[in-house]
Design brief:
The protein has a single domain, classed as PH-domain like (Roll). The chain is 31% helix and 37% strand. The longest helix is centred in the last third of the chain and has 20 residues.
Length: 143
Amino acid sequence: MLLNVSYNNEQVVRKIDAAVGKPFSLKERVKRGGIGIGHLIITEASVAINNLLILDNNRNVCNIEMRPSGIIIGFRSLLESYAWVIPYHKLTMYKGEAETYSIYKETQFIKLTARPTDKKIHNFIKKITAAKATYLSSKDIPS
């Protein structure tokens, strides 16, 4: 689900919380060693996301936030902020070449690049994969 989160809208917050859960508490964030990473370079995206990204001439970057039952990929276009909400049971991740990651939700996708020397990004992707595995093994997932 791709949402405009530029403004404080209670309905949008409820949709996000219903899809991927409420944000982690400060204690849980510290215990997990962080739940987000920023400034990931977008190299390619599906049509719906790409149509938003091409509206301005800035470098296409995004951030990823973990939630209890999914992730949120945030990016900006013009003066608007967007969130792509992906529950773990619909999340598919691929590691392409040494520095490319592809994140899919059904037919939508984003391809990100990370420098091979940037261990922080690679470790965070591993953390997402582990959280997804833990979530899927502990829940009865709807089809």
